[in-house]
Amino acid sequence: MRCIPAVLGPVRNCQIIVRMATTLHRNLRYLVRLRYTPYREMRYKNSMHIITQKRIWEAKARWPQSVSALDAWYRLIKVSEPSSFAEMKALFPATDKVGHQHVFDIGGNKLRLIAVVHYRFKKVYIQHVLDHAEYDKGKWKE
User: Which of 24, 59, 69, 78 sits CB 3.0–4.6 Å from 107 for a disulfide?
Assistant: First the structure.
């Protein structure tokens, strides 16, 4: 009779340890997923900070036909991390550099977004959102 509990004792202890390890592993996977997901890193560490988003909201109200194009531009610039103008040009082919400003053609060349981009600090400062008639006047260069 003594042999049976002695044989079952280590097995039972082993089952408890396996159960505890499984629970610990499951909790650890949850913590790792919570803290180190690529989306979270992309959202906070590897994204551009857009300053003066208000100009985009004003442009959406002023040109309702270009809302989807402005949203697409905003979402793409927010999650991207270009480190030079060449990478920005690869991301947005209709981008030109005029002095220290970047001019983005948005919505099939309907709007022009003028911004200053600081690649090192991951900042985009939106200065103007203009249609072609306003852009051609050239007042934004001053």
Answer: 69
